[in-house]
Each structure stands twice: as C-alpha cells, then as structure tokens.
C-alpha cells in the first residue's frame, strides 16, 4: 500500500507518520494492512497543493492508494487579511487533490474543521447539520469540503477541533509556556468546543481510510469545555504556579470572529468504524506526561 500525506511536518501529518511507522498509537495497534506500507510525506517545499498541474503530475507519478490531506492555512486571524492565500490552500488545494485522486482511483481523506459552523447552537453539531461559517478561515475550509465532494467519489471529510499534538505549536504548549513565564493568565470563557489530541485523531483516520464508508465525519475528543476550562486543566495537571482568570472574546482584539459554540458530535464514527476517542481530560493528561516545553 502506498500512502501520501500532505502537511507531513504539521501536528497531524507527523503524528500519522509516527503511528504508521510504529504500527500502533496510544489507543492501540492499527490494522495489519498498513504493515510495510510505503509512506510518502510532503509539505509545501515538496508539493504546492494550490498548483493543479503540479498536483496532477505528482500524484500521477506516485499513484498512491490513499491520500491524507492535513495541509491547511490555519492561522484564523491571518486568513482575514490574506483571503487569496486562504482560498488557495484551504479550497483549491483540496480541489486539486480530489481531481488528481479521481484520476488514479485513490482514496482521499481531507481534514476539515468545526469552524464551518456558525456556532450559535447549544447542541453538538452532527455531520448533517447546516454549515454557516463566520470567518474567512471557516468559509475557505467549507469551500474545500465542497470541492472534494464535487471532484471525487472516494472521499472522507473529517472535521476536527481544538487540535494539539507533540509536533509544532498549539494552545496547550502556548498555555504551558505563558503560565510559567507570567504566573497569571486571562483566557476566554465564552467559546465552547472539544479539545482533540492529534494521536486520537490520527488513529481514527487510519481506521476510516481502509473502509468504503465514505462521507463526512466528526472526530473530536469526548466532552466539551471552554478555552478557560482547557487552560485551567493544563495548569492544574502540570502543577504550574499560575492563576487563570476568565475573560470574554470582545475584550480580545482579533481580526476573525470565532464560533461561540462549536462542539461536534462524532455520530458517523459511532455508526460506522466506532468511536474510541478519549475523554479530553484523559487524553490531555497523557499528552502532558510526555510533552516537553
């Protein structure tokens, strides 16, 4: 089996590669079908996914069985001021991969986000709920989803949220560093979602990829909290001498609006391959025991 992973040096891409090489994740072993797979990891330096001709040529030459697209322009505020770049990476990139995958009969797993939803609800969003993003990031990610659905038949769209992993920067590492340096933090308490360990997400992506259960999936940590709750848990679990106080989103000057409630329901996982995502607190504890800052 030949597996192409875009965004290979990011939080998720690097985690998927590690699990494939080890044959197991923190949740357990992965299917034996992956044994002796050829793993091809690319990032922007090796393949600019926004260039259709380059993508078609590369995939036609490699002829992968599975393509996992974890490449994205994820700086939410920066997307507001760089709309063209956000469109190229988050929308045209997935479109190009979908077109190329269709030509070589490859499966495409495309990673998307909770930010495709407006965030004005009170019940976790299911895969079939109406999308209505409030930011350029969310809009371009939604367009990317639509292109994938239009341009290839064998696709999995996997929406996740509040992702953190061992490689790269994320909220958990930022809070740990700031807590040690400052001793006091103010964190927003009016946005709710699902913290997701990249290890759990990667494990489930590899479960899904071997099936023919095509469609849209939500894949996030079990349970929900606010960013304030999340930060308090990080400080508590790491036993850092730091006080954490709640604040509101309108007190923070940000270019992009965030959904106030973007909790996702892993309904499709439960109804297909099974939902083994850990409780967000449990997954966070394990992560904090291993990560070094």
Automatic annotation (TrEMBL):
Q: What's its job?
A: Catalyzes the reduction of dTDP-6-deoxy-L-lyxo-4-hexulose to yield dTDP-L-rhamnose.
Q: What is its EC number?
A: 1.1.1.133
UniProt keyword annotation of Kinase present:
no
Under Pfam families, the record lists: RmlD_sub_bind (PF04321)
Q: Which residues form the RmlD-like substrate binding domain?
A: 1-291
Question: InterPro entries, from UniProt?
Answer: dTDP_dehydrorham_reduct, NAD(P)-bd_dom_sf, RmlD-like-bd
Q: Name one GO biological process term.
A: dTDP-rhamnose biosynthetic process
Q: Which GO terms describe its molecular function?
A: dTDP-4-dehydrorhamnose reductase activity
Name the pathway: Carbohydrate biosynthesis; dTDP-L-rhamnose biosynthesis
The entry's protein name is dTDP-4-dehydrorhamnose reductase
Q: Give the family from UniProt.
A: Belongs to the dTDP-4-dehydrorhamnose reductase family.
Gene3D superfamilies cross-referenced by the UniProt entry = NAD(P)-binding Rossmann-like Domain, UDP-galactose 4-epimerase, domain 1
Q: Does the keyword Transcription apply?
A: no
Recite the UniProt keywords alphabetically. NADP, Oxidoreductase
Q: Which domain of life is it from?
A: Bacteria
GO CC terms on record? cytosol
Q: Where is the signal peptide?
A: none
Which SUPFAM superfamilies does this chain map to? NAD(P)-binding Rossmann-fold domains
């Amino acid at each position: 089996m030949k597996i192409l992973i875009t965004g290979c040096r990011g939080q998720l891409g690097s985690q998927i590669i590690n699990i494939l090489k080890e044959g197991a994740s923190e949740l357990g072993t992965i299917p034996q079908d992956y044994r002796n797979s050829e793993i091809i990891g690319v990032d922007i330096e090796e393949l600019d996914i926004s260039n259709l001709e380059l993508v078609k040529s590369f995939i036609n030459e490699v002829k992968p069985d599975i393509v996992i697209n974890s490449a994205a322009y994820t700086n939410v505020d920066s997307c507001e001021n760089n709309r063209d770049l956000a469109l190229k990476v988050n929308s045209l990139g997935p479109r190009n991969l979908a077109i190329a995958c269709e030509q070589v009969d490859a499966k495409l797993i495309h990673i998307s986000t909770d930010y495709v939803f407006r965030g004005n609800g009170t019940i976790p969003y299911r895969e079939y709920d109406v999308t209505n993003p409030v930011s350029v990031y969310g809009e371009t990610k939604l367009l990317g989803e639509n292109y994938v659905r239009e341009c290839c038949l064998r696709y999995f769209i996997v929406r996740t949220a509040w992702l953190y992993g061992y490689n790269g920067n994320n909220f958990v590492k930022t809070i740990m560093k700031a807590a040690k340096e400052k001793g006091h933090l103010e964190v927003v308490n009016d946005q709710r979602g699902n913290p997701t360990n990249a290890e759990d997400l990667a494990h489930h992506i590899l479960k899904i990829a071997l099936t023919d259960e095509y469609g849209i999936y939500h894949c996030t940590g079990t349970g929900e909290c606010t960013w304030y709750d999340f930060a308090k848990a990080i400080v508590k679990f790491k036993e850092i001498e730091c006080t954490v106080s709640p604040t509101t989103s309108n007190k923070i000057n940000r270019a992009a609006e965030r959904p106030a409630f973007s909790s996702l329901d892993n309904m499709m996982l439960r109804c297909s391959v099974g939902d083994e995502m850990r409780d967000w607190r449990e997954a966070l504890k394990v992560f904090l025991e291993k990560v070094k800052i």
